[in-house]
Write a structure and sequence with these properties.
This protein is mostly beta strands and 366 residues long. The protein has a domain at 98-214: Methylamine Dehydrogenase, Chain H. The protein has one helix at residues 2-20; strands spanning 22-29, 34-39, 42-47, 57-61, 64-68, 73-77, 84-89, 94-99, 104-108, 113-117, 123-128, 133-139, 142-147, 152-158, 168-175, 180-186, 189-194, 200-204, 209-213, 233-234, 238-242, 248-253, 258-263, 268-273, 279-284, 291-296, 301-307, 312-317, 323-328, 333-338, 343-348, 354-362. The strands form eight sheets. The protein has a four-stranded antiparallel sheet with strand order 3-2-1-32, with no helix packed on it. It has a four-stranded antiparallel sheet with strand order 4-5-6-7, with no helix packed on it. The longest helix has 19 residues, at 2-20.
Length: 366
């Protein structure tokens, strides 16, 4: 009886803590250099003059929000008050960034460098590479990125770990496939894709060892081009990859042994895995731009198709609620799908040409 009561009290406490958390959506309004702020199902405000938001990206770290614009600005803001706190222009064109404990690192395109900034966006280092830089990631006290023009992956090491300011030096470089263009990191493994080499490269960051993997599909046919890794989805035992130029989602095990092709209604662009890894949302290009399909990751079958009144540019699963948010660009709306019974629950308006959806979670959201 005592054990039963203890379990009940623990369950109640856990649920109470979960329900204290709330979410706030920051939606990129790509044509307006602004962000729509959505809270409690309504568009509450707009953060204006956020620079070129075509492909704008937002990340959160603790109580800090950071935004990178296409024209090379990094902006720090408070996700609770939505106030801009600092900004710094690293170049004319920046493509990606990562947030460390005591720094922000930015991969630049046009001035062929990597910028190291403090968390308050004060410049610390500018590392010239002579290449467009992509796929920037953090592992322990290493900073890893790919040099698109030089067919290299560079590993920098922080000589001041735990200090107020980092200082990075070149630790290791790998010659890789032709024209690396994107990367992902899982545990101690850095995975880099290429435009001109069939397959992708894998670096073990503990052993600092590189190998190249060729991906094949049905009939042992090679996959001709690996898409952006932001479009991949990794479950516990499967890897889902949207095929390039074909109506399929490719399914592999974690060692990249081929499992199956899932036939889709159009050319898939983006795959997004639900928090519990049980469902996969797939977006499309071309005539099927307005649709998404939901795949059951156990049966590997399509279980639901939704079509919207405009191009779908992004989807985002809620971690707190049974909601899937869909960015419908042409219709100036964010649609919300109920993921318990799989129906279109509601639509959020007053959003201008939305694209990327980014969610901030906190107990302090009022």
């Amino acid at each position: 009886m005592r054990l039963f009561l203890a379990i009940c009290l623990l369950t109640t406490a856990l649920w109470s803590n979960m329900t204290k958390m709330k979410e706030k959506l920051f939606v990129v309004e790509r044509e307006s250099s602004s962000l729509a702020v959505i809270q409690d199902g309504l568009t509450r405000r707009h953060m204006e003059k956020m620079h070129n938001m075509n492909h704008g990206i937002i990340k959160f770290s603790g109580k800090d929000g950071y935004l990178i614009s296409r024209d090379g600005y990094v902006v720090k803001f408070d996700p609770l008050t939505e106030k801009r706190e600092a900004e710094y222009k690293t170049s004319k064109s920046a493509i990606g960034f990562v947030i460390g404990k005591n720094y922000v690192a930015v991969a630049n395109y046009d001035d062929k460098s990597v910028d190291i900034l403090t968390r308050d966006l004060k410049p610390v280092q500018k590392i010239k590479t002579g290449s467009k830089n992509v796929g920037i990631k953090i592992y322990k006290n290493y900073l890893i990125f790919a040099q698109m023009d030089n067919d290299k992956v560079t590993v920098l090491k922080d000589e001041n770990p735990g200090k107020a300011k980092p200082h990075f030096v070149k630790y290791k470089e790998f010659s890789v496939g032709k024209m690396p263009f994107d990367a992902m990191i899982e545990g101690n493994t850095y995975i880099v894709g290429f435009f001109l080499t069939k397959g992708f490269g894998v670096i073990d960051l503990d052993k600092m060892a590189y190998k190249q993997i060729k991906v094949t599909a049905e009939g042992n046919k090679p996959v001709l081009k690996v898409p952006h890794f932001g479009f991949w989805s990794l479950s516990k035992d499967k890897t889902f990859i949207p095929a390039v130029g074909d109506n399929k989602v490719l399914v592999y095990d974690k060692k990249f042994n081929f499992i199956k092709n899932i036939e889709t209604k159009g050319l898939p662009v983006f795959t997004s895995l639900s928090p519990d890894k049980k469902h996969l949302a797939v977006t499309f290009s071309g005539k099927d731009f307005p649709s998404i399909q939901i795949i059951d990751t156990d049966t590997l079958k399509i279980m639901k198709t939704f079509t919207f009144p405009g191009k779908v540019l992004h989807v985002r699963w809620s971690n707190l609620y049974p909601d899937l948010y869909v960015s419908v660009n042409d219709a100036n709306q964010v649609s919300v799908i109920d993921t318990r019974d799989w129906y279109l629950e509601r639509e959020i308006f007053q959003v201008k040409h939305p694209s990327g959806i980014f969610i901030y979670e906190s107990e302090d959201i009022k």
